[in-house]
């Protein structure tokens, strides 16, 4: 791949972000400027801005990578990301806008009149935000690595620095139309190459055999192993080797590997003949489903695929409403009615976007199967143009994709960083004024940056799935019960957050640290939402019932404010916490 | 807080009548939300089970794989948008009915 175009595209996206951040600093000095001005944002523009911020590395790269590796089952990710907005719409959107809160801790304190609930909610916002930032940085490292050969940490560091600078400078989020533009940029960056790729695929005779067979190399393919690989092959494999396999040096001779485990050292070049089935890495993220790839629920990664599907469905359907950068956007709608209409448009926009990643996943399985060998499947979107087109055309399409991917990291990461930094400033660190917000921004980004260096093998969309599970187990019960049930007490909310969200967080920590690896214990911890969401709801309800005497006195008035339409009952909204 | 329309002051002051109005609005809105959620959960939520019951030898059923891709890759999205539009119409109608009631 010619690197010049891709580097230029990434540079343009990064530079535009920095400049817009600086420009935003000049025209919008306080949060209240932004929020008050944004009251007039019409639903269509606001919806594009929400979608622009929401479509992250997981959507742009991760979904295609998972589809390549594991097939049709992974389409539950984009379906779930979209369904999450539908659940948000029917239970939360309008009342949340009418509450006047613009962060989850604001909502918790306002509804339950408890500083302690506020603090616990803040801790969860920070936790979910960090979990969600991690894959953005990983995706950035991957993208920069693929297009320029730069080391993995560099892309993450680049995004971390740009986002920290832009957010600390203060402007980034203040301009709704920039986030809206990001949506159209990402859609274009994925749509235009997809059209060309599909045309090229048709020109190639529209092959589809690999949908039902193991992925095979369609032509003689050289693969350079960047990190030491462990393969566990099922059938004897003939391959020409330059480098070291199982401790033996080879210089281009043909090697017949018997079935069983093998170790391939970093730097080795493997040359596969046409038609060879792709062996799959076992120390890569996971192995693929092989011959049953196009059949759902056959993923070999999980011993209990049906359970895993439901874990994913529950986490994404119910977790979206608790994502810190999602909630804050609802405040920019002029009223509850507009918040609802905005959400419907968001569903259309992200639904349109999600038609595209599966195309890349399926074509990637055909034309870039060596990604399965290296475990680098998240790169599928980026390498496809180079595989199907030689020359300038392929370079330009690749550059467009790299630029779009960086737009995805930057917009999502800046929204998350701003939310996390805001919560750190307000609720965690002692108050020190505006300098203090900058300190919080650095802290908000420093933790996931450090984690990015430590945890390198988590697939992008999977890491995001864990953030959704924690959000679904903590904020979903808080929001749904807080909005619809008068009986909720501060003690109930507190224990529900801690038990539901805390157990999901513990499961996530166990999964990231890599134990246990098999059987039910692994499935239960890797997909905690199935049990942790009911646990959170149950705890919240039972403890609230036990502390019935402590229902906040303001509950009736708050409920009226959350549910009465603005027009019918006059402006009952309360502007709270705007502008420090 | 707020500019008093006749019934709105009642609602804000937590009179019995005002509280009853809010409760009835909440009930109708919750019903609409639960109905939309139930359709989503039943239709999409049953798909993993349905897919797992597909015949294990897909060559017996050539349309099978394509159908699964079409459902999860494309058809799910317009389906969700239809639910969303239905819900918004219903919720806004509930609010209009409420406004008619208080005026």
Automatic annotation (TrEMBL), chain A:
<feature type="transmembrane region" description="Helical">
    <location>
        <begin position="183"/>
        <end position="201"/>
    </location>
</feature>
<keyword id="KW-1003">Cell membrane</keyword>
<feature type="transmembrane region" description="Helical">
    <location>
        <begin position="396"/>
        <end position="425"/>
    </location>
</feature>
<feature type="transmembrane region" description="Helical">
    <location>
        <begin position="6"/>
        <end position="25"/>
    </location>
</feature>
<feature type="transmembrane region" description="Helical">
    <location>
        <begin position="524"/>
        <end position="545"/>
    </location>
</feature>
<comment type="similarity">
    <text>Belongs to the sodium:solute symporter (SSF) (TC 2.A.21) family.</text>
</comment>
<keyword id="KW-0472">Membrane</keyword>
<dbReference type="GO" id="GO:0005886">
    <property type="term" value="C:plasma membrane"/>
</dbReference>
<feature type="transmembrane region" description="Helical">
    <location>
        <begin position="117"/>
        <end position="133"/>
    </location>
</feature>
<keyword id="KW-0812">Transmembrane</keyword>
<keyword id="KW-1133">Transmembrane helix</keyword>
<feature type="transmembrane region" description="Helical">
    <location>
        <begin position="437"/>
        <end position="458"/>
    </location>
</feature>
<keyword id="KW-0813">Transport</keyword>
<dbReference type="GO" id="GO:0015293">
    <property type="term" value="F:symporter activity"/>
</dbReference>
<dbReference type="InterPro" id="IPR038377">
    <property type="entry name" value="Na/Glc_symporter_sf"/>
</dbReference>
<dbReference type="Pfam" id="PF00474">
    <property type="entry name" value="SSF"/>
</dbReference>
<feature type="transmembrane region" description="Helical">
    <location>
        <begin position="153"/>
        <end position="171"/>
    </location>
</feature>
<feature type="transmembrane region" description="Helical">
    <location>
        <begin position="492"/>
        <end position="512"/>
    </location>
</feature>
<dbReference type="InterPro" id="IPR050277">
    <property type="entry name" value="Sodium:Solute_Symporter"/>
</dbReference>
<dbReference type="GO" id="GO:0006847">
    <property type="term" value="P:plasma membrane acetate transport"/>
</dbReference>
<feature type="transmembrane region" description="Helical">
    <location>
        <begin position="307"/>
        <end position="331"/>
    </location>
</feature>
<protein>
    <submittedName>
        <fullName>Cation acetate symporter</fullName>
    </submittedName>
</protein>
<dbReference type="InterPro" id="IPR001734">
    <property type="entry name" value="Na/solute_symporter"/>
</dbReference>
<feature type="transmembrane region" description="Helical">
    <location>
        <begin position="75"/>
        <end position="96"/>
    </location>
</feature>
<feature type="transmembrane region" description="Helical">
    <location>
        <begin position="45"/>
        <end position="69"/>
    </location>
</feature>
<feature type="transmembrane region" description="Helical">
    <location>
        <begin position="343"/>
        <end position="363"/>
    </location>
</feature>
<keyword id="KW-0769">Symport</keyword>
<dbReference type="GO" id="GO:0015123">
    <property type="term" value="F:acetate transmembrane transporter activity"/>
</dbReference>
<feature type="transmembrane region" description="Helical">
    <location>
        <begin position="464"/>
        <end position="485"/>
    </location>
</feature>
């Amino acid at each position: 791949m010619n690197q010049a175009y891709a580097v230029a595209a990434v540079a343009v996206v990064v530079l535009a972000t920095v400049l817009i951040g600086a420009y935003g600093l000049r025209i919008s000095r306080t949060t209240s400027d932004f929020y008050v001005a944004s009251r007039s944002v019409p639903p269509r523009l606001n919806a594009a801005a929400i979608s622009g911020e929401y479509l992250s590395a997981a959507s742009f790269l991760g979904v295609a990578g998972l589809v390549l590796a594991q097939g049709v089952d992974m389409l539950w990710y984009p379906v779930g990301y979209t369904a999450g907005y539908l659940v948000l719409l029917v239970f939360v959107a309008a009342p949340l806008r009418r509450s006047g809160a613009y962060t989850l801790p604001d909502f918790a304190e306002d509804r339950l009149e408890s500083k302690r609930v506020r603090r616990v909610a803040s801790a969860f916002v920070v936790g979910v935000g960090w979990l969600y930032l991690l894959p953005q940085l990983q995706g950035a490292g991957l993208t920069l690595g693929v297009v320029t050969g730069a080391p993995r940490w560099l892309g993450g560091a680049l995004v971390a620095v740009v986002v920290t600078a832009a957010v600390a400078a203060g402007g980034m989020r203040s301009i709704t139309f920039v986030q809206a533009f990001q949506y159209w940029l990402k859609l274009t960056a994925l749509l235009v190459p997809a059209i060309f790729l599909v045309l090229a695929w048709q020109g190639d005779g529209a092959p589809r055999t690999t949908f039902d067979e193991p992925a095979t190399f369609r032509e003689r393919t050289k693969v350079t192993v960047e990190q030491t690989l462990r393969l566990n092959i099922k059938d004897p494999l003939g391959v020409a080797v330059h480098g070291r396999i199982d401790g033996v040096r080879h210089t281009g001779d043909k090697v017949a590997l018997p079935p069983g485990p093998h170790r391939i050292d970093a730097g080795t070049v493997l040359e596969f003949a046409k038609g060879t089935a792709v062996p799959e890495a076992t120390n890569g993220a996971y192995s693929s489903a092989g011959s049953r790839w196009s059949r759902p629920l056959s993923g070999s990664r999980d011993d209990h695929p049906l359970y895993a599907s439901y874990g994913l469905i529950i986490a994404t359907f119910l977790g979206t409403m608790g994502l810190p950068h999602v909630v804050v956007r609802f405040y920019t709608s002029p009223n509850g009615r507009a918040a609802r209409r905005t959400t419907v448009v968001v569903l259309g926009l992200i639904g349109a976007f999600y038609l595209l990643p599966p195309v890349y996943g399926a074509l990637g399985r055909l034309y870039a199967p060596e990604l399965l060998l290296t475990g680098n499947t998240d790169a599928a979107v980026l390498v496809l143009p180079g595989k199907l087109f030689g020359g300038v055309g392929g370079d330009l399409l690749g550059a467009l994709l790299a630029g779009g991917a960086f737009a995805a990291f930057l917009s999502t990461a800046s929204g998350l960083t701003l939310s996390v930094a805001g919560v750190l400033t307000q609720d965690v660190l002692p108050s020190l004024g505006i300098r203090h917000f900058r300190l919080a921004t650095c802290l908000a980004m420093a933790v996931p940056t450090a984690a990015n260096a430590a945890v390198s093998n988590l697939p992008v969309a999977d890491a995001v799935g864990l953030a959704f599970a924690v959000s679904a187990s903590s904020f979903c019960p808080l929001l749904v019960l807080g909005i619809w049930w008068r009986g909720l007490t501060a003690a109930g909310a507190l224990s529900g957050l801690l038990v539901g969200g805390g157990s999901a967080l513990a499961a996530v920590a166990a999964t990231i640290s890599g134990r246990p690896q098999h059987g039910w214990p692994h499935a239960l911890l890797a997909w905690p939402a199935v049990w942790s969401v009911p646990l959170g709801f149950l705890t919240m309800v039972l403890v609230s019932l036990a502390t019935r005497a402590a229902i906040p006195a303001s509950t009736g008035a708050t409920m009226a404010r959350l549910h009465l339409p603005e027009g019918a009952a006059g402006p009952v909204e309360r502007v709270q916490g705007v502008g420090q | 807080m707020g500019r008093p329309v006749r019934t709105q002051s009642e609602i804000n002051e937590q009179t019995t009548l005002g509280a009853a109005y809010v409760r009835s609005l909440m009930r109708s809105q919750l019903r609409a939300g639960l109905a939309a959620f139930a359709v989503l959960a039943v239709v999409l939520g049953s798909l993993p089970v349905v897919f797992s019951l597909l015949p294990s030898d897909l060559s017996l059923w050539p349309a099978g794989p394509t159908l699964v891709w079409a459902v999860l890759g494309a058809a799910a999205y317009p389906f969700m948008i239809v639910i969303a539009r239905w819900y918004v119409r219903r919720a806004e109608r509930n609010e209009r009915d409420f406004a008619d009631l208080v005026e």
